[in-house]
């Protein structure tokens, strides 16, 4: 019925490290029926700290069989049995990786004695195998050796079976149970309370610190997707072992979920969020007066929004936008920073430039056209609200942008959403105006325009 497994390895990650010892105890639900143990030659040097922890040296494994040589035994002993281990993700991922290396599949129904202990012994301070054995008076002599650990886990399973008067063990083994795939330290109840709604979810570590933020159209389905794969990469294993809690916020629609996710990643700086933590500098179109009194335009890299006439998310877009303004208002390309040549700009010869770049056109003649370009850019910065589905049937979400700057979002209950800027500002919670948030809003507007309310400046 059960195959209780324990491994000793060269390190903590299946994709990087190898097995050095295997122990399997077979159990029929009442008593032990067979056992197997062997050292394994990992084909590499065992790190000194692992040798000190386990007592297994390079000399001990030098003449031991490789995993490929014992694979058939492991396959036979675990076939059609429930794979049991204390922190089953660890041992299972190593065996799955070793079988994959020799091009053999390995798939077993799993049971984790850590998760089962958390349910049947809820008041324990520690769920380490040694701590549980001490609490339950289980003999546990040679720690960090595979057979000793497997036997300790076997006796633990026996005691947990005796304490299980409500059928928790059988429930964990049902086909639709998620116990085998959930992170070891995550209470199942926290997963079960996730709604099938759109929103943002947070994974927290043992200290309550947020380590990952994500968004989802279906919170429960998306979170389950994190845990349902059998990937053995060190990132996945490390991710699984640090998750202790899940929190969530329902947002009502995907736009507000995306905006909240971007805001929270910038605010909380979670360790497992990579791409969106990268600081994105702003590219702004700015205006200034030079020492000769000419009103000039240029592209300036900025750490945060504000202080610019117009913002762009790429240099190509900024230059294209500025070229349009130069052509539209007959401005000098060199005075706008678009040409770096000395002397007259390249457009002066054909008459497109009136000569401000070489002083032929005076500031009082050139500046009114530059001022018109500046006013035109300001007029393009719209103030608008995007109205969407709220968290409840009678609620509507409100995303607010003022003069091109994202202010935040909030919710309104009722049939008519206010159209005055001052009233809309009272509804929203302020959020970071980042390049990510502006990209999200631009992408949304390219898909749907009917939910936008233009507010006169």
What keywords describe this structure?
five-stranded antiparallel sheet, 457 residues, alpha+beta, elongated, five-stranded mixed sheet, 22% strand, single chain, 4 domains, GIY-YIG endonuclease, Nucleotidyltransferase, domain 5
How are the SSEs ordered, and which strands pair?
Layout: E1 2-9, E2 19-27, E3 32-39, H1 48-54, H2 58-61, H3 67-78, E4 82-85, H4 88-101, E5 110-112, H5 113-120, H6 129-135, H7 146-163, H8 168-173, H9 188-192, E6 199-204, E7 210-216, H10 219-228, H11 234-242, E8 245-250, H12 254-268, E9 282-289, E10 295-302, E11 310-312, H13 315-328, H14 363-379, E12 384-389, E13 395-402, E14 405-413, H15 421-427, E15 428-430, H16 435-447, E16 452-454
Parallel strand pairs: 1-4, 4-5
Antiparallel strand pairs: 1-2, 2-3, 6-7, 6-8, 9-10, 9-11, 12-13, 12-16, 13-14, 14-15
Structural features, described:
The chain is α+β, with helices and mostly antiparallel strands. The chain has 4 domains: 2-173, Ribonuclease H-like superfamily/Ribonuclease H (Nucleotidyltransferase, domain 5); 188-277, 3-Layer(aba) Sandwich (GIY-YIG endonuclease), CATH 3.40.1440.10; 282-377, no CATH class; 384-454, no CATH class. It contains 16 helices and 16 strands. The strands form 4 sheets. Strands 3-2-1-4-5 form a 5-stranded mixed β-sheet. A 5-stranded antiparallel β-sheet has the order 15-14-13-12-16. A hairpin with a 5-residue loop joins strand 12 and strand 13 (395-402). Helix 5 runs parallel beside helix 7 (146-163) and helix 12 runs antiparallel to helix 16 (435-447). The chain is elongated and about 100 Å long. The model has no long low-confidence stretch (mean pLDDT 89).
């Amino acid at each position: 019925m059960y195959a209780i497994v324990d491994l000793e390895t060269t390190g903590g990650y299946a994709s990087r490290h190898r097995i050095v010892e295997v122990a399997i105890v077979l159990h029929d639900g009442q008593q032990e029926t067979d056992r197997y143990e062997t050292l394994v030659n990992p084909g590499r040097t065992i790190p000194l700290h692992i040798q000190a922890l386990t007592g297994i040296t390079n000399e001990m494994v030098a003449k031991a069989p490789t995993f490929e040589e014992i694979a058939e035994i492991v396959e036979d002993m675990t076939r059609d049995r429930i794979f049991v281990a204390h922190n089953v993700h660890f041992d299972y991922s190593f065996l799955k990786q070793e079988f994959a290396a020799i091009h053999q599949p390995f798939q077993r129904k799993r049971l984790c004695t850590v998760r089962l202990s958390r349910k049947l012994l809820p008041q324990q301070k520690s769920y380490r195998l040694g701590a549980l054995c001490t609490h339950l008076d289980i003999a546990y002599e040679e720690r960090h050796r595979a057979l000793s650990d497997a036997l300790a886990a076997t006796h633990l399973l026996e005691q947990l079976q005796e304490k299980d008067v409500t059928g928790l063990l059988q429930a964990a083994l049902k086909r639709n149970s998620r116990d085998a795939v959930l992170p070891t330290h995550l209470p199942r109840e926290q997963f079960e309370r996730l709604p099938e709604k759109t929103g943002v979810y947070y994974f927290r570590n043992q200290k309550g610190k947020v380590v990952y933020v994500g968004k989802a159209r279906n919170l429960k389905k998306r979170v389950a997707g994190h845990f349902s794969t059998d990937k053995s990469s060190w990132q996945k294993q490390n991710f699984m072992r640090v998750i202790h809690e899940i929190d969530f916020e329902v947002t009502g629609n995907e736009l507000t979920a995306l905006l909240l996710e971007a805001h929270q990643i910038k605010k909380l700086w979670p360790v497992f969020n990579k791409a969106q933590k990268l600081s994105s500098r702003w590219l702004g179109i700015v205006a200034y007066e030079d020492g000769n009194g000419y009103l000039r335009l240029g592209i300036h890299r900025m750490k945060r929004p504000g202080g610019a006439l117009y913002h762009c998310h790429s240099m190509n877009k900024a230059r294209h936008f500025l070229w349009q303004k130069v052509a539209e208002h007959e401005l000098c390309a060199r005075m706008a920073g678009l040409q770096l040549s000395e002397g007259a700009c390249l457009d002066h010869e054909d008459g497109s430039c009136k000569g401000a770049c070489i002083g032929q056109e005076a500031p009082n003649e050139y500046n009114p056209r530059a001022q018109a370009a500046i006013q035109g850019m300001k007029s393009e910065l719209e103030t608008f609200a995007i109205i969407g589905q709220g968290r409840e049937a009678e609620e509507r979400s409100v995303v607010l942008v003022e003069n091109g700057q994202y202010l935040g979002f909030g919710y309104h209950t009722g049939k008519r959403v206010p159209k005055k800027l001052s009233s809309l500002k009272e509804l929203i919670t302020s959020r970071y105006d980042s390049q990510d948030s502006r990209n999200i809003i631009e992408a949304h507007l390219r898909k749907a325009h009917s939910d936008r309310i233009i507010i006169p400046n």
